[in-house]
Amino acid sequence: MSAQFGLGAVQHLLQTEAGTVNLGDVRSVYYRRPSTYSPPSEMSEQDGEFAKEQAKHGMAGIIAAVRGRWINHIWRMLEAEFKATQLAAAQQTGFVVPPTIITNRVDDVRAFAKEHGSIVYKPLQNTDLVGPDGRAASIWVDEVDPSDLNDDVGSTLHLFQQRLDKTADVRTTVIGNRTFSVRIESPYLDWRRDYEQVHYTVIDTPNHIVLRCRQYLDRLGLLFGAFDFGIANDGSWVWYECNTAGQWHWLELETGLPMTAALADLLEITR
């Protein structure tokens, strides 16, 4: 990669085994979960960390300067991945948001549980974890017994939320002006625990949910969002989160919803 400045017209060239692209000619960018740079193995740990930071800041800055349609723009995604940002945007947009606390004060969590009854723990950010067996591990949404809370809560910030007495979950994928909703039924509190026991049903998205999803994305400067909702016993849709790089293709395979086509259509539209 090369980017030149101060020499007249700005030139950004991306070179790969497939060829060379002038980034000034790029009309659309689909940005989703890029792999991180791996420094040469012969580098020391310190030099490797330095090289990784240089690559990250150099590459991100050059790529982010591309003009055109982004799904989604790198800076907008970085802002929108913070749970507190999401919760504030969802509440301001008018979604029903379950009572939530982000804290490292154990007494505040206990008071929160006393006020709101059953509560669950959710990680503020999913990170790569390895279990005792050396395999990838996950932290699922799980119910919290207040008697298990101790001063370890003070070691970092945590997110606790009132548990929703729900009938099902819904994944609503918004791609530009198109909205796709799938009802997800599972025996687990967190349906991601076992995909083999999940049942999918394509459903219509209520008009007010469609409107709020688009308002949410507009507020954060996004064109794509994978929204997770819980369906309460009274039928209301309760907002959980919006993933700006959420999985969607498995739902297309399960249901036949034309999400790939919708994404391709959106990328073809130039500003």
Summarize the structure.
The protein contains 7 helices and 16 strands. With 271 residues, the chain is an alpha+beta fold.
Task: Please write out the topology.
Elements: E1 2-4, E2 11-16, E3 19-22, E4 28-30, H1 45-64, E5 69-71, H2 74-80, H3 83-93, E6 100-103, H4 106-116, E7 119-122, E8 129-130, E9 136-137, E10 142-144, E11 158-162, E12 166-175, E13 178-185, E14 199-203, H5 207-220, E15 224-232, E16 237-243, H6 249-255, H7 259-268
Parallel strand pairs: 4-5
Antiparallel strand pairs: 1-2, 2-3, 6-11, 7-10, 7-11, 8-9, 12-13, 12-15, 13-14, 15-16
Reported by name, the CATH topology of the largest domain is D-amino Acid Aminotransferase, Chain A, domain 1
Shape: globular
Strands, count? 16
- Radius of gyration, Cα only, in angstroms? 21 Å
Unreliable residue stretches: none
Q: Write down the CATH class of the largest domain.
A: Alpha Beta
Architecture of the largest domain in CATH? Answer: 2-Layer Sandwich
- The strands making up the biggest β-sheet line up spatially as 14-13-12-15-16
Architecture overview:
With 271 residues, the protein is α+β, with helices and mostly antiparallel strands. The protein has three domains: 2-67, no CATH class; 78-83 and 166-268, D-amino Acid Aminotransferase, Chain A, domain 1, CATH 3.30.470; 99-162, 2-Layer Sandwich (Dna Ligase, domain 1), CATH 3.30.1490. The protein has seven helices and 16 strands. The strands form five sheets. Strands 14-13-12-15-16 form a five-stranded antiparallel β-sheet, sandwiched between helices. Strands 6-11-7-10 form a four-stranded antiparallel β-sheet, covered by helices on one side. Strands 1-2-3 form a three-stranded antiparallel β-sheet, with no helix packed on it. The two termini are 26 Å apart.
